[in-house]
Amino acid sequence: MREPELEALLLRIVPDLARDWSGASPEDVAELAERFEDRGYDLPPFYRWFLSRLGGSVGALHPVLRGFSAADILAAYRSNSVDLGPTQFLIGRVPDPLFPCDVYYDLACPAQDDACVLRPRMPTGPGLRRSETFREMLAAEVMLWFRVRTAPHRCTGKLVSAERGAADLLDAVMLRLGFTNPLVTGPSCRLYERDAMTMVAQATSGPDLFELFEFEVGGANTTGIRRLLRGISTGSSLHVDAERWASR
Length: 248
Description:
Protein name: SMI1/KNR4 family protein
Strand content: 25-35%
CATH topology of the largest domain: SMI1/KNR4-like
Structural class: alpha+beta
CATH architecture of the largest domain: 3-Layer(aba) Sandwich
């Protein structure tokens, strides 16, 4: 069970979260569980935990979890505005004026007491972004929003491997460089911290015979970030493509 790890991470990096978050009502949880059962599935244990902590109010996580409350999801289902396949279940309806999107489970792909989550890649590109679990998606988005994108300097890019097991290659070199993993994740997501530097890397579709991770890293200065990327490149078989730099 990885919920204690995730809860500790959220409370550590999200200011005032414990003051404002709240769980969904027992009635809302029961209705959601019934709607899952109507599709032939049980409520994933992680989603039940999520509802117990954040299903009523997401508090300071509003920038990441707008539209994810139990009330938001039930309102969508009660209005008959959800059009998904029989193995899919809506868990987030993001009311963005430019890029509104639905985030949903693919219950045919259970993993780690949770399930695969799909969401549009827009505005970064066409198609869907796939996360192995909702747990991983939440942890990655929180670290991006509250750590990487608040850092004075940031870099985004790609890590490319001609070998299978890119996540293991990345783990090995990041461990040697002094980084730690705040949460155990599957092969499609990696989270790293060291002092004032944070990296999030998520697998995406690449050409045949290649594994591709998109990364975002934030730190106190560009020198440190460049040193990190050079360390990954020279310390592993991963090809590092630093695409965009930004400063606050």
